[in-house]
Structure formats: structure tokens, C-alpha cells
Write the C-alpha cells for this entry.
Amino acid sequence: MAFTFTADSMLASRAGRQVGVAGEALTAGLFVYQNGDGLLFRASSAAAPSAAVRGITLSAAAIGQPVVYSTGGPIQVQDDAFDGEGELLVLSTAGKCQTHADIDAEVLTIIGWTLGTDSFELSIGATGLTAPALPEEV
């Protein structure tokens, strides 16, 4: 199950903050990567370049506008967003994350782990490892 975070669901962050420039329209709660021109785009586990997560957006921005994002630390979200403590979170698609139990990533990027039902520790680990191809069914 992919988690969708929004400006309303992102309650607080004591995490490290950075400011970047949006390369596409972004909303709060999206995991982003930085391209070769230094612009931020929605991260995706579909390919290595876009799986190199920089952080999670804390504000919205139009193309070419400044966007605030967090690079690590605790993030508080709406109550009961997660099942409990200690679940590993990995990058999914379109700037979202999911639990490791639901992994379907081409490129593995660890986002962090849950601290309880309403918070997670943002601790990005862009492994660059690709999932092995599964044999076709016979």
C-alpha cells in the first residue's frame, strides 16, 4: 500500500530543512530527487536517477519556484497512518512510499522506518540496487 502525504497530513517536522527549486509542480508530502540541473522532481523507484531521493517536500511549489523539503529526522503525520512501530518504508512511485512488505520497486531506496502509528524517521538510503528480473511463468 502506497502512502499519500498531503499538506494537511504532514503535521510537524523537526527534521533538517533545505530549500530547492521545483522542476515540476510539487505539493507537500512528496519524496523528491534532484536532477542534473539542480531541480527537484517526484522520485520514483522505476529508474536509478529518479530513485536517488533527496527528501520529502514540506511545502508546495510551482515550476521554477522555491520548495522547502526535509532531508532527515522525525516526521509527524496524521494519526493511524501506519500499522505500528518498526516498519521499514521504501520508495514507491510518483513521490510516494510504501512498507517493505509491499515492495515492487525496480530500484531500492529506503525512506526510513515508522516510529508509531503517526510518525516516521526519515533516513534516506538510496542503494542504487536494482531488483532482479523474475523468470517468466511456464
